[in-house]
Structure formats: structure tokens, C-alpha cells
Amino acid sequence: MYSNDRKEYLLEVKNRTDHLSYALEIIESNFIALYQLLETTTTLSHSLPLDRSSHEEFLTKIFSSARSSLIYGIGIWYEPYVFSPDRQWYGPYIHYNDPRGGLFSVSYEWSTPEYEYHRTDWYKKILDSASDGFYLTAPYFDTDYTYITVGKPFYREGRKAGVITIDIIRPLLEDFFRQFDFSDYEGLILTLSDRSIIYAVSCIDKGSGGVSMFQEENTEVFNRGKTLEMFTRKGITPLLLETETKDKRFKLYGVTDRKEIIRGLIKHYSRNYIIFLFFSLMLPFFYYLSLRTKRKDIENRQLNFENTSLKIEIQKRKEAETALEFIAYHDPVTGLHNLNAFFETIDSPYGLEDSRYLIQVSLENMRELSIIMDRDIIDSILKEFAGRLVSNCPENAGLFRGRGFNFYIVCMDTPRGNALNLSRSLLQEFRRAILLHNRNIRLRVRFGLAAFAEAEDLNQAVNMSQATLSGNNSKQIDQIFLYNDRIQENNSRMINLDAAMSQNSFIDELHLLYQPIIRVEDRKTVGAEALLRWNSSYTGTIVSPADFIPLAEENGYIIELGWFVLRETIRVLASGIIPGDWFISVNVSPLQFIESGFPDKLDAMMDAAGIDKKRIKLEITESSASSTAQYFWQSVEELINREYRLAIDDFGTGESSFHRLYTLAFDTLKVDRTFVKDIQAAPRNIEIFRSLLNLGKSMENMVIVEGIETEKEHELLKSLGMTYAQGYLYSRPAVLEDIIQEKPPC
């Protein structure tokens, strides 16, 4: 009997612990949705125009796309004087007018003395945190509600510009927890990994008609001893059950009454003993009355009832387990298996004989679409995409949805060629637009392939497929990339270069070389292009611009690099060491053109040095000239109106708008080397080159041909009308003194 009691007791404890674990999984998924929304908001806010209407529109779209029922408000809180020189602080904030949902509105904090948010504890802790990751505050009371804030610092122009927050309030947490049945618990506590309490309720006073907060609700750190002592004082013998998330970020504690569990067991077994005793005592009486048949009928009916009840209970439990298993191992939107299923059902790599391949499919434009479209439309797009994926993959392939907008295909026992062919087939399939609500939606996809045979475990296989889509491949859309050692080496190298850029000596290690621009008629130098070089002491190598310029555009250092080149160029022009009729061309990143106040800052530097604006040319690549960003073109037009000379670099390789070329007074077109190296391959190439020259001349532009390397190229292009050129034939990039003396190195 004792053994049965013990088993029943342990089973009851396990059932309650499993209930807590299930609840914690739901809580974790909601917080993951918060983190994903916060990551998206932080990324998109980097280039958000600093005006009120843009912030209101941006916050409204972000708020409408939120996928978590916990969100009460989202805020963008700027550091003092970052938003505007005459505003000490500024913070737009969107939130529900009613915490239970309904209408929402955007409010602003314009240097209001009664709310100096940059002095609050939550703001300072998030901004001053050691990392740039997520920060979850402990609960605090702020005028109307008890808040829990998830925050992340964000950057503008390479420095921390403030904090982006998502707020959760106590009423929404209470609504969230009411979806679970915690009637068997006396108390519930949700904490962070550092034991900071973010939610706590007690159900001790069940006659009050609802849940009430702990008496010690203001205690910020969970104390196991004090909690158990509090329940003991109220006549409860507490049993504290504990479970935590896989990443150990959250813990959920449930307090149950040990006595109540034992009483229930005693009551259960006492009923059985009474029934047994009753029939034992009545047996002589039944025998005396010859009622054995009736007694058997009663016993049979009782047994049938218990069997039926047991079957119903087993069926309910199976249905609940099936539902929980589906939630745990399936994506709720597409119905595909999730990463939990991937790691539990797919066998680990088993060596060189493993012929499986992992294909990662990344939907590159879904983040942008999720901002401008309703959540229901995004879900419909993902369902359609998943349906096409299932229809076009082999039956034995494993299909999984990962985090964000990434999907995984496990190709079972297939040669590399078959995996590549499947990727090509899917790429063609997804180039067809999705028709949804009478509109065509084009998905931009990339494929990363990794061989199981090259991985030690499943985590490494996933990381390898992800590595193919990063680094130099990160901006290439509708492409297929296959993992190799060079990709890993390149990613490691990029990590080292990123670390080197963060060193204090970074700017001091930069210098400029110059490549002459010559007049074809007499080969006299008329100008030079300034070219940035980096000799890194951190890596001990000379780093190619092809490596560090794209990296600088990603990590935000490109603005600082641009100003370094401009300062050095202006210093050289002001020194008088180059002939007065020369000009210097400077490549300017599109990100610098949209920097706030760029024309004014450049004017101030030119005026201070006393330099004629016609002696400097600002080069933009044709790919940036094809941009449709209004603020980019406004900056270009303003620079032209201020009499700066602008050149389009790599002309003929991008998608320039002829309307832009004719309406904006560009000074120079630089024809790309691509047209030079193939000029002798076919007569058609000569005609294309001649057309480019004629186009430039018709717009009264200086046309500079880049990449001249041989005398044959020089003579042929001269005969076609080339008047200005640049290339290794005349000079490689060299120090300024050699250029001036016209003694460039060979």
C-alpha cells in the first residue's frame, strides 16, 4: 500500500511539473517574438529619417505587425541632442490606449521636464549594458502600471544613439497567465536567470474571487526560503516545483500544497477500502437472501463504469499529448516541422560516407514585406511558399522551418549534383510571383548548401549552411552557394577585420594612394583618383579595399572612412603641392550622401581650406545612382546646386535612369573596365563602346575610360574618340610625390 501511495504521489508531482514546462514553452515563444520584433525595429531604425511623421509611420507599421499578445507599447528613445541640436531629448512612443487592446496612439516626449526618460534607471541600464544585446528589466512602477521592459541599444552614424524598447505591463501578463489552469497551485513565480522576479501571483485567498499579488511583490530577487516560509505561515506545507527554458533565460516556479496531494491520495484509497469493507460485511446478508445474482450485477456495472471512465481519461490524455507534441515539433503557420523536430529526428553526421546534404532557403525580402503588410497576409505568403516547397521536393526529403524566414531541406542520400539540381529547380520555381489578393508578390530567395560529411554534428551543419549566405555573399539575391573551407576562412577573416576596425589605431593606419587621370591626346596628367589603403597592425597584413570597404558599410565605419578621405584630399589640395589645374576624384558611399547635414559639413571644410569646389569630384557608383531613395537624390541635387562636380563611376554596368542623367548636371561619366577588356572580341562591342562615348558627349560630360592596360587598347580606343583615360598602362596607384613628378612605379 505504501508503494502505491508513493507512486501516486510522484505521478501527481510529475504531472504538475509537466504542466509548468508546457506553460513555460508558450511564455518563451512569446518572448522570442518580442526579441525578433525588437531586432527588426533596431535594424530598420538605423536609417530612419529624423522627422516626426517618419517616426509615426514607422512605429505604426511595426506595432501593427507585432506577433506577441504581451506587447503594450514600443518606444524609440534618443540620447540628448541626437535627434535635433535644439532638442535636449526626444522619444516617440506608441501604445494601446486600453491595455486589453483596441485603438493605439503615438505620443512624443519633447524635452518635457516632467518626464526626463534619459535619467530613468531602465534607460541608463539598457544604454550602459556591456553588450549590444537584449536587456530585460526587473518590474518597476511608472505613473500608471507596473512595467517590464525589453530593450536594446541602437546606433546611428557609428555610435549609440539611444534605446529601443518594448513594454509589457502587469494587466497583460495577468491576462496571459489566465489561459493556463493553475487552480491546483497555491502560487506562481516567473523569474529571469539572475532570479529577478518579473511576475508573481498567489492563489491562497481563493475566496476573494481572483488572483492576488504576493505580499512581498516588491521583492526584486526571488528567495526560495522566504517564499516557502510565507506559505508555511499560512498553514500550507509548500512543495516548490521548478522548470526553466532551454536557453536558461527564464524559470517558472509553482508552489503546491504537499498536504493536499496526500489528502487526495488518502481520500482516494479510503473510498476503495470502505467499498471493500461494505461488501465484505454484507456478504452473509446477500447469501442469506440468495441475492448473489443481483450483487454480481452491481459489481459488473461498477466495473464497467470504471473501465469506461478510464478509457475516456486515456483518450483525453492521448489527445492532449498529441496536441502538445504537434505544438512542440511543428511551425504553427506553415505546418512544417520546426528545428526541435530537426534536432530530434535527423541523425547526426556519421563521417565521409554520409551522402546527405542540408539546403538552407532564406527569404530575403520577407522582413521588409512584414513591415508594410498585415500579419495575415504574411502568414498566407509563408503558407503558399511552404506548399510550393512540399510540391517540388522529393518525398524522402526532410522539410523544416527555422527561425525567422529560413527554411531547411535535408536531402537524403544524394550526390552533390542532385542537391544542386534541386536548388536550381526551386530557384526557378520561386522566381514565379505569388498571386495574393489580386497582387503579385515576388519572393527574393537564396540557397546555402552544406554536406553532412563535412560537419561534426547537426549544429555545425546548420552553421555551415548559414555561413554560405553571409560575408561577401550576403547581398547577392536569387543565388545558390555551396559551403567550402574558403567560405569558413573568409568568414573568420571578416571577423578578424571587424575586430581590427574597432581598434583605436584603425584610422591612423589608413593612407591614400593616387592614380593619374590622363588626357589621351598628349598623355598629360589632368587629375587623379584618391584610393584608400589600410595597413593593419592587428592582422599584420595590407587589407584589400575589396574586403574592408563592404565590411565598413555593414558595421557603420564607412562614414568615418569617407570623412578621412575627404579631409586628406582637401588637405592635399590646400597644400599647393599639386598643379593648380588638376582635380582629385573621391569615391563617396551612398550611405554618406544620406548622412544628415552632409552638404553643410563638406561646405564648412572646403571654405575653411579655401578650396575651389571645381577641384574636387565626388564619385558615386552607378548602382547607387539607380537608387530611388528620395533623400539620396535630394542630397545629390543639393550638392550639384552648390557647384560641386559629380561623377558616375562604373558607368554602363548598372541600371541608371536616363531621366536622372539628363535632369541632374553630372560632370563626368567613367566607363567601366568591362567594356575595355572585351573591346576586340566582336564588332558589336566596339559599337557599344562608341555609343557610351557619344552618350557622354551629347550630355556635355567629361568621359573617362577606366582600366587601360595595353598600348593596343589605348590606340584602338583613341581612334574611337576616347579623350580621357585611367589605367595601369599609364600608372598604378602610387604616392602623391611620384604622381606629381610623373615617375609612377612600374
Describe this structure as you would to a colleague.
The chain is of the alpha/beta class and 746 residues long. Helix content is 44%, strand content 22%. It contains 24 helices and 28 strands. The strands form five sheets. Strands 20-21-23-24-25-26-27-28 form an eight-stranded mixed β-barrel. Strands 1, 2, 3, 4, 5, 6 and 7 form a seven-stranded antiparallel beta sheet that branches. Helix 1 (2-45) packs antiparallel against helix 6 (258-288), helix 10 packs across helix 11 (416-430) and helix 13 (485-501) packs across helix 14 (545-555). It is elongated and about 135 Å long. Mean pLDDT is 80; it is low at 205-218.
Which helices and strands appear, and what pairs or packs with what?
Layout: H1 2-45, H2 52-64, E1 73-78, E2 90-96, E3 104-110, H3 121-127, E4 135-136, E5 140-142, E6 145-156, E7 159-169, H4 170-177, E8 187-192, E9 197-202, H5 224-233, E10 238-244, E11 250-257, H6 258-288, H7 292-329, E12 337-338, H8 339-345, E13 357-363, H9 366-372, H10 375-392, E14 398-401, E15 406-411, H11 416-430, E16 434-436, E17 439-441, E18 445-451, H12 458-467, E19 479-482, H13 485-501, E20 510-519, E21 524-536, E22 541-543, H14 545-555, H15 558-575, E23 583-587, H16 590-593, H17 598-609, E24 616-621, H18 622-625, H19 630-641, E25 645-651, H20 658-663, E26 668-671, H21 673-677, H22 683-698, E27 702-706, H23 711-719, E28 724-726, H24 736-740
Parallel strand pairs: 12-14, 18-19, 21-23, 23-24, 24-25, 25-26, 26-27, 27-28
Antiparallel strand pairs: 1-2, 1-7, 2-3, 4-6, 5-6, 6-7, 8-9, 8-11, 10-11, 13-15, 13-18, 14-15, 16-17, 20-21, 20-28, 21-22
Helix pairs in contact: 1-6, 10-11, 13-14, 15-17
